[in-house]
């Protein structure tokens, strides 16, 4: 009896040792989709922001360059117009000579100065970019005052020119009128150059 039990146990153990052993591992948790999606999303956003920043900088630079070019063009136009006005004013020097015989000086003012005045007025009237400066109340008054004095001197000296040799009083009066226009001319030149310099400097600072 004991022998039979031992035999059965041996057979059972032998079967157990021959049976395949199945090892079950605990299932590995599936990685969360956020673990790989989040870095990709962040990288995409950073790339888009970099592209957007680059585009914005390019657009800003383009607009800035266009604005600078436009402002430089306006400054060049102003410089040209100021040059024309200053040249027309400087040309009046020939009609108001500082060194000449009395008769020649008066003849020059009476005959030549009106043409110079007309040229200066035409030049000023054609100005577009410096016109706003010359139209300011103070500038307009300074310009008008000089034109009035110059035109008045030309008319005065033309009317009394024939009496210079025979009437000492007229000669002195004409000399005073000539000195008046000469002083007014020099003062006007200084004022005009100062206005041109100021306007061009302000245009440069705005670039």
What sort of overall outline do the alpha carbons produce when their principal axes are compared?
rod-shaped
Q: What are the segments in which pLDDT stays under 50 over at least 5 consecutive residues?
A: none
Number of strands: 0
Q: What are the secondary-structure elements, in order, as H or E? A: HHHHHHH
Mean of pLDDT: 80
Helicity range of the residues?
Answer: over 70%
Whole-Å distance between the termini? 119 Å
Overview of the molecule:
It contains seven helices and no strands. With 207 residues, it is mainly α. Helix 2 packs antiparallel against helix 4, helix 3 crosses helix 6 and helix 6 runs antiparallel to helix 7. The model has no long low-confidence stretch (mean pLDDT 80).
How would you briefly describe this protein structure?
The radius of gyration is 49 Å and the shape is rod-shaped. It has helices at 2-18, 34-90, 102-111, 113-125, 131-134, 137-160, 168-205. The chain has 7 helices and no strands.
Topology summary:
Elements: H1 2-18, H2 34-90, H3 102-111, H4 113-125, H5 131-134, H6 137-160, H7 168-205
Q: What brief labels describe this structure?
A:
207 residues; mainly alpha; 79% helix; rod-shaped
